[in-house]
Amino acid sequence: MTEEIIIAGFGGQGVLSMGKILCYSGVMQGKEVSWMPSYGPEMRGGTANVTVIISDERISSPILNAYDTAIILNQQSLDKFEKTVKPGGILLYDGNGISRHPERTDINIYRADGTEEAAKMETTRTFNMIMLGAFLKIKPIVELDNVIKGLKKSLPERYHHLLPLNEKAIHRGMKIVQEINVAEKVR
Questions:
Q1: Which of 141, 112, 138 is nearest to 127 (CA)?
Q2: Is the distance from CB of 21 to CB of 147 less than 8 angstroms?
Q3: Distance (Å, rounded) from C-alpha 59 to C-alpha 36?
Q4: Adjacent-strand bridge partners of 36
Q5: b/e code 136-164 from CB counts within 10 Å (16+ = b)
Q6: Alpha carbon 127 to chain centroid distance?
Q7: CA–CA separation, 83 vs 111, rounded Å?
Q8: Could you tell me which of 102, 96, 97, 63 has the C-alpha nearest to residue 83?
Q9: Residue 94: CB partners within 8 Å, gap ≥ 6?
Q10: What share of the chain is helix, strand, coil (3-state, %, to 5)?
Q11: Can you give the pLDDT at residue 187?
Q12: How far is the C-alpha of 103 from the C-alpha of 4, rounded, in Å?
């Protein structure tokens, strides 16, 4: 099993930390991992993305042009990365602020309104964990116990009191994700 993932959005949405947590989770399961971030100098509010590879085998290169999965958190990222998902792959996106929805019919498209759910939970900091939960519902490449361990490893100790809230957000994401059938909308 090898899963090649791009996670993309604005700086401040937890893009890089979501990727880091996925990688730590993979390490906890004895997988090979790669985490390659990319972001502009503006950080918060600018665009950010991270390439994550989780594999049973050695990873030859962290540089990719096509992905098994794209987790998209804003319109700019959707415009840039929709075309990079491999045919038959997965595109998961947050519907907040999206004016042009995904249009490809050769990939599996899912939507999770993580921004809306984070607002309902009264903490925007859980947004990325809601989206991570949605992804893991679609494709459980790492076990939830290892995600919690990865979360604990990546969060500074002063934030460990937020672990139960983040776990709740992951479960919430698993409940709200829905598949979008683009082919039906085209007809």
A1: 112
A2: yes
A3: 13
A4: 51
A5: bbbeebbeeebbbbbbeebbeeeeeebee
A6: 10
A7: 17
A8: 102
A9: 9, 72, 73, 74, 111, 112, 113, 114, 115, 127, 131
A10: 45, 25, 30
A11: 40
A12: 21
The 10s digit of each residue's pLDDT in 99-149 is 999 999 999 999 999 999 999 998 888 999 999 999 999 999 999 999 999
Q: Quote the domain boundaries for residue 122.
A: 2-186
CATH number for the domain spanning 96: value is: 3.40.920.10
The segments of the chain whose pLDDT lies below 70 read: 40-46, 183-187
> What pLDDT score was predicted for residue 59?
95
Number of domains in the chain: 1
Surface-to-core class of residue 31, CB atoms within 10 Å of its CB (0-12 exposed, 13-18 middle, 19+ buried): buried
- Give the DSSP H or E segment for 108: strand 108-111
- Among the listed residues 97, 101, 49, 56, the one whose alpha carbon sits nearest the alpha carbon of residue 70: 49
